[in-house]
Design a protein that fits this description.
In chain A, 76% of the residues lie in helices and 7% in strands. Chain A has 259 residues and is mostly helical. Chain A has a two-stranded antiparallel ribbon. In chain A, helix 10 packs antiparallel against helix 11. The longest helix of chain A is centred in the first third of the chain and has 35 residues. Chain A starts with a helix and ends in a 6-residue tail after the last helix. The mean pLDDT of chain A is 89. By secondary structure, chain B is an all-alpha fold. Chain B is built from 8 helices and no strands. The longest helix of chain B has 40 residues. Chain C has 10 helices and 10 strands. In chain C, helix 3 crosses helix 4, helix 3 packs parallel to helix 5 and helix 4 packs across helix 5. Classes of the chains: A mainly alpha (259), B mainly alpha (228), C alpha/beta (265). Chains in contact: A-B, A-C. At the A-C interface, helix 7 and helix 8 of A face helix 2, strand 6 and helix 3 of C.
Chain lengths: 259, 228, 265
């Protein structure tokens, strides 16, 4: 009798909550993609920035070219390009009789029973790999620009001083410029780090089941289109806010007077 | 029967079928973002505390939600929205609205930064001459702020034109969808098709950002700072 | 003590940046414990010359000899050579992420291979020489300009180099801080440090320079002892420059005298 008097919004909300396992798995997948993409982007981006700033003429041009191309084209285009590339390459390789890239239905996953629901988390399979790779390669180009800005702001005088003491250029960059640049880049970098989760939704177009894809599944069963979308939007908002705040604290904790 | 398209076919297909909507969505999105961004920036710079919080809250909201989610919300999530349009036309409005609202949040930052960068002495001088607040802003601060905003603005343009590719998912034929369609029957050609559309996007983004970036470094050199 | 041993020999150095010829055949020699001062108008190539000496920018033509070794030949280990040449910068260039003591000791560990304890001891010695021991645990941003520059000098001293190059060490300092840095430079000069100093500080030059070199537009216009320059400079350009310097430093008795004479006419 009580249930008949509950407002419609609340009933709808409870129905959506009933799909908590889907939401949870979707969120886990989103975060999994995000963390790996961020890491790949960090190391590759740092390498690109250093190559661009300190590499010889050829290396720095290649790094610049990569950065400009990736930043000048949409992520979706990059995703499709990378996703379909192995098929084309394989066709070519097979025609030549060469060994080809395996695009099988392989999968590293974990299934467990959580409060009565069976949940399966796929850690790595073909499309997950493509997704992580694309997001990482994309993020690297943007992170490279932040790192480059920080390195430039540290200034050439630091490297000059290091070399004047007899340090090699390599040693000067690694031990003098880089530590300072990494600290200075945190505010700008946290921009990229905090907002990267947003871009993981793109992978639904290659069939990955992250949060947004799960949302569509829930909608297909409940037809509560707006509520589900808003829930997803809010979840992203919360994640991004948490990451921003965490990085803010990190910046304050590692502050050195004058840096 | 293979009517497999070659690169020239692909190029022209994408250009003729997709370019219009790419530019249309981008232009309208940027325009809405411009008006909205300016309004929000004014609210934050010249408004009272609470108005400022409102604007700031808006920014946080629309920076924190993925554009794709926004597009789906406006295209399919609110049936009564765009009631006056045909169902097939609604996604177009949905994309424009999503792009515009998002862009507004980012342009707000751009304008706010630019307005604050204009020396406060300028405003003082204008008032001392007898101009009121609105006049001082319109004739003295605003023109200078616009000039300062150009580099960031060119970046925002690049972002919006790339985001227009998300319209792929709601059935609008812009460049990315066109590139996908033409190779849909020939999956082996997909990388080629994507490569072509990538070059097209680059044609629209690279010259702008490069030009503006160089102009800025030159200006800084003239002022005796930065560059070199 | 071999006072005549040649530490540095710069032979006919030429350097251009793009189209601009900055150095056009500059030569100089420096023996142990000598202090030479290079001065001249801005843009004359003084900084460039210093950076050619420690090969931060290799000269286009000419040779640099450090204690007999030709630095401009190919295949030479420049890093090892630079460890023997110290440099003090106009803008200090202290490593802002390291405390003062670490600024001084980092190269001792990484380049000379000293242990942490050895390096720390040497660093404290150097800081003591410049009277900055109490500030050893401070970061550069917590120090005044004069203090930072003194740490910069300590950083160069600690490496026990064959000579130290000074690139306008006091030009970026507030007037009241210049004194403490010049004091340190005077002390190490008197203690026998071999120095090449680019500066406008004529008082310093007068006190310790064995030779002064006037550089203008990449060419050595005149060279001689400080007395030569202050009593009887030859070139018009040198005379003009010295007058400008005197105005800068307020030694304007000459000007007042001339003004009064003009008035009388």
């Amino acid at each position: 009798m009580i249930f008949q008097q509950l407002p419609k919004e609340l009933v709808d909300f409870l129905r959506v909550l009933g799909y908590w396992d889907n939401i949870l798995i979707g969120l886990a997948k989103t975060m999994w993609l995000y963390v790996w993409a961020l890491l790949i982007g960090f190391f590759l981006g740092l390498l690109l920035a250093l190559l661009r700033q300190y590499g010889g003429r050829i290396l720095s041009r290649i790094a610049t070219g990569y950065i400009e191309i990736v930043r000048g084209t949409p992520l979706l285009v990059q995703l499709f390009f990378i996703y379909f590339l192995p098929f084309s390459i394989n066709t070519f390789l097979q025609a030549q009789g060469l060994p080809y890239i395996p695009i099988g239905r392989w999968s590293l996953y974990v299934t467990s029973n959580l409060f009565g629901r069976t949940v399966t988390m796929v850690f790595l399979d073909h499309i997950t790999l493509i997704g992580i790779l694309t997001l990482g390669l994309n993020s690297a180009a943007y992170q490279a620009e932040y790192f480059r800005g920080a390195v430039i702001s540290i200034g050439g005088g630091q490297l000059e001083a290091a070399q004047s003491l007899g340090m090699s250029r390599r040693s000067g960059v690694l031990h003098i410029v880089l530590p300072q640049a990494l600290r200075r880049v945190i505010p700008a970098w946290s921009n990229e780090a905090a907002y990267l989760p947003k871009y993981t939704v793109l992978v639904i177009y290659i069939g990955l089941s992250e949060l947004f894809a799960q949302a569509h599944y829930i909608i297909s069963e409940t037809f509560l289109t707006l509520s589900v979308y808003i829930l997803v939007a809010l979840i992203f908002l919360v994640i991004i806010t948490i990451i921003s705040k965490a990085l803010d604290i990190l910046y304050k904790r590692t502050a050195i007077p004058g840096l | 029967m293979s009517n497999e398209p070659n690169i020239i076919n692909i190029f022209f297909y994408i250009l003729t079928k997709g370019l219009f909507f790419t530019l249309f969505l981008t232009a309208l999105g940027l325009l809405i973002g411009f008006a909205l961004g300016l309004l929000l920036a004014l609210m934050r710079v010249y408004g009272v505390k609470e108005i400022g919080w409102l604007a700031s809250g808006y920014e946080k909201l629309f920076r924190g939600i993925p554009v794709l989610v926004l597009i789906f919300i406006f295209s399919f999530g609110i049936p009564r929205l765009f009631w006056y349009l045909e169902p097939l036309e609604r996604p177009i409005a949905g994309v424009i609205l999503a792009l515009g609202l998002r862009s507004g949040a980012y342009q707000s930052q751009i304008f706010r930064g630019a307005i604050l960068s204009v020396h406060s002495g300028q405003m003082e001088a204008a008032r001392a001459l007898g101009m009121n607040g609105f006049q001082s802003f319109r004739h003295i601060v605003f023109p200078q702020a616009l000039r300062l905003a150009v580099p960031s603005w060119s970046n925002e343009y690049a972002v919006v034109i790339k985001d227009s590719s998300f319209a792929y998912g709601v059935g609008i034929v812009e460049m990315t969808k066109a590139a996908f369609d033409i190779a849909a029957n020939f999956p082996l050609l997909m990388p080629v098709s994507m490569g072509v559309v990538a070059i097209l996007y680059l044609l629209f983004t690279y010259p702008v950002t490069k030009l503006v970036g160089e102009r800025q470094s030159k200006k800084l050199k003239d002022f005796g700072m930065g560059g070199g | 003590m071999d006072k005549n041993k040649t530490v540095l020999k710069v032979v006919d150095v030429w350097k251009s940046y793009d189209e601009l010829e900055v150095l056009k055949g500059v030569s100089l020699e420096l023996a142990e414990q000598e202090v030479k001062v290079i001065f001249g108008p801005s843009g004359s190539g003084k900084s460039t010359l210093l950076r050619c000496i420690n090969m931060l920018n290799a000269p286009d033509k000419g040779e640099i000899y450090l204690s007999g070794q030709n630095l401009t030949t190919s295949g030479i280990n420049l890093n090892a050579m630079r460890a023997k040449i110290g440099m003090v910068f106009q803008h200090f260039n202290l490593f802002s992420h390291l405390k003062a003591i670490d600024n001084v000791s980092v190269a001792l560990r990484r380049v000379k291979g000293l242990t942490k304890e050895e390096a720390r001891e040497e660093a404290l010695n150097a800081l003591n020489q410049v009277k900055m021991v109490e500030w050893a645990e401070h970061y550069p941003a917590q120090l005044s300009g004069g203090q930072q520059q003194r740490v910069g000098i300590a950083r160069a001293l600690a490496m026990k180099p064959d000579l130290i190059l000074f690139d306008e060490p006091t030009s970026a300092l507030d007037p009241e801080l210049i004194g403490e840095v010049l004091q340190v430079m005077l002390e190490i000069a008197k203690a026998g440090t071999t120095m090449v100093v680019v500066t406008h500080e004529m008082g310093f030059a007068r006190a310790v320079a064995s030779e002064m070199i006037f550089l203008d537009q990449g060419i050595v216009i005149e060279r001689g002892t400080p007395e030569h320059f202050f009593d009887s400079p030859e070139s018009e350009r040198v005379k003009h420059f010295l007058r400008q310097i005197n105005i800068l430093y307020g030694y304007h008795e000459e000007l007042i005298k001339e003004y009064n004479e003009d008035e009388k006419r």
